[in-house]
Fold these 2 entries.
Entry 1:
Amino acid sequence: MIRVLASDGMEASAVAKLRELGYEVVEQFYEPEELAQKVKEYDVLVVRSATKVRVPVIDSAADGGKLKLVIRGGVGVDNIDVKYAEEKGITVRNTPNASSASVAELAIGHMFSLSRFIGIANATMREGAWNKKKYEGTEIAGKTLGLIGMGRIARETAKRAYALGMKIIYTRRSGKCCELPEEWKYVSMDELLKSADFVSLHMPAPADKKPIFTKEVFEMMKPTAFLVNTARGVLIDEDALCDALDNGTIAGAALDVFAEEPTKNERLCKHPKVSITPHIGGSTKEAQSRIGEEIVDIITGFFK
């Protein structure tokens, strides 16, 4: 019997489907040292973002010779040493299609939160304040959304923003996309930073793990601009961001991801110009169902 360890849990219908097909599924989280031992007992390891599949775990799994497949239930695989795993004969897969719409909707939601003070107004009203005159917002229709990266989530975000009347510009390392609507304009990184009213990040973590958005980058943005990050926390220098918000270098920021998770950065979490959520981009019932379906398809296809 093929054994599957879902270390960060799995959607119930996916577990039921796999068991129905004859797979053994165990839902149990292990700390790294214990995981390195337990993983030897399984053919498949399914993780979300909490479990880190690093060299010691991979070495142990390779020594055991049983583990053949690691699946990241979600888009990013930053928590897995992918190249090393594959060098050891362990296949790594993810579920890139399942949560794109959910993350895109959260990005749009954060744009509304920033432009209309939804988050901070909610907080201050709970404290008894009535800041009606203080929270004069701005409409997002007619504003320019700059997307850094143009993968699945960025495209879903752009579709929704365009339908709301926003102008779309984008940049990416590999250049212009030929299959996108003509109205979506490819620009350089510098031009995007200087002209976008909202900058939304949709890029992987850099290989060196050093922030892309530093003091110098914030200074290139418009003082009325908002930054939205639903991609990778490491992309942003969090101290530099707080400084930029304090100095009025940019108008606000929305974050669903952080350099350290759970984040302990109180300055960031309590900043009045920040709309903040605890990495819930893919946390919708619909996305979880699709992730589960993709995981089942990957496992059953792999072990045909």
Entry 2:
Amino acid sequence: MTAGLQIALDCGGKSLDLAQPRIMGVLNITPDSFSDGGDFFSLDRAVERAQQMVEDGAAIIDVGGESTRPGAAAVPLDEELRRVVPVIEALRPALTVPISIDTRKPEVMRAAVAAGAGLINDVNALQAGGALEAAAGLNVPVCLMHMQGGPETMQDTPAYRDVVIEVGDFLAARAAACLDAGIARERILLDPGFGFGKTVEHNLQLLRQLDRLVARGFPVLVGLSRKSLIGKLLDLPVDRRLAPSIALAVLAVWQGAAIVRAHDVRATREAILMCQAVRDVD
């Protein structure tokens, strides 16, 4: 098992220590997210929710203003900015932990970092026009995610010769592009993109062999919380996926995941602490 990474990310002046696995709390400022759409759309509720997640053990809060669930339509730039910038501005002084911005758009990246975000979490791995250059100029860590296709069509017919190799090679290539653009190696994280252009079998294979992605030498972030993988395997609605989500998070941490993106922070953190205790015993 891979030990904790001896690295602390400087996220816009706030530190994210990855010496032990950490929880990224999900804060969707969208009306149509698959699991909590509309729940935290108002500014006051968003801030309250973020503060509760930090109290429950989140080490970073991920703010997103565009749903990337399967079939989701793109959100216009002005609308995404309207959703996320006021929330980040309000969260910056209210939280002691870093804020990340979940976006594909370079304009949103710039505005979010100016408002107080300290990490860019891009499901498109900085492939949009101008995104790589924007991220390089902002001097904050970046998380590069693999996605086959786009949210509108990614679950139509996902296909791979070898999903583990192809996802790993794609992410390695995107990391190399970041390095060439001037983004320091210690500012790069990788995310295999569970549920983004993958079948149930693809997701299971990726999780079963997650240690192979960890072995590429970058901190790995995973997002498995409440995913459709659980619903398809266990026939459970979104609001009954807590226990399976925790099981998947523990499996990921056992194989070396550095960050787990979660909706249910307290329960996930407690499970990961137990996993960590077993993992680290002499």
